[in-house]
Amino acid sequence: MIAFLDGVLAGKTLNSAFINVSGVGFEVGMSASSLSKLPSEGERALVYTFLQVRDDGMALYGFTTPDEKALFEKLITVSGVGPKVALAALSSYDPGKLADLIAAQDVAAVQRIPGIGKKTASRIILELKGSLEQGLGGLFAQEEKAIAKELEGASEALLSMGFTTAEIDLALKGAPEGATEGALLQYALKKLGS
Q1: To the nearest whole percent, how much of the chain has pLDDT over 70?
Q2: Distance CA 168, CA 183 (A)
Q3: In 165-191, which positions are buried (b, 16+ CB within 10 angstroms) versus exposed (e)?
Q4: pLDDT per residue as tens digits for the range 12-29
């Protein structure tokens, strides 16, 4: 997975940017609002990315903030909403406003997004309102709970193997963020074994 690109803006079109990272040019699909926030051509650009891999190819999508990326990832989980529609949504509203509209169940406002009809707007609200009830803060709170659950599971597994709490805390220190319970367990065991 490509988490971000840190390079030089080589150019942009109406719906994508070209980022030169150490001589390799990446085409990154972006919302109109993110494209407008990019620096001038030839200047350093940091873009958070989402890599979509499908049978017919790969596509890289970019965002200027982690909030925008997180909301994009939520939107594309909704049936009938692909990356292009998700980018249209983020071009129409900033992430905070869109999250608030979904939480408020404002079908009419969500329906104003190009490519979204009444049925799709209703589906977006139905599927995402629970995770966006507190706006974007609710989205990150859920991610933090999931991370804490993975850490707790790995800690319990290590305790059952006979390691002390102090050893476990030390072994899990510096573990990669967002790692699964299994990956955390492997990380800790490597540190404990050395």
Answers
A1: 89
A2: 14
A3: eeebeebbeebeeebebeebbebbbee
A4: 999 999 999 999 999 999
